[in-house]
Amino acid sequence: MDLIKPCPFCGCSASVEEVEGGADPVRFSVGCDNGDEADCMGYQSLTTFARRSDAISAWNKRAEPPLPVEPPGHPVIRAPDTRKSFP
Which of 20, 13, 15 is nearest to 1 (CA)? Predict the structure, then answer.
């Protein structure tokens, strides 16, 4: 069985769902197991695949993290924190 990465939005586990489309053969989709679509964007996947392994591969595909703005060893200048704290 293929390893399914956790949800990239909330970190919950994810699972494969078999989707039956009437006359179409069974298709596969992967979505978050959070259980509440209001809490997580990964709750329901609208993309289906003919093979279970293709659905898992698509779910597991992640964007590469962004490159740092400054090269290593150079300070990053940050704006001052102007938030007010309330007692």
Answer: 15
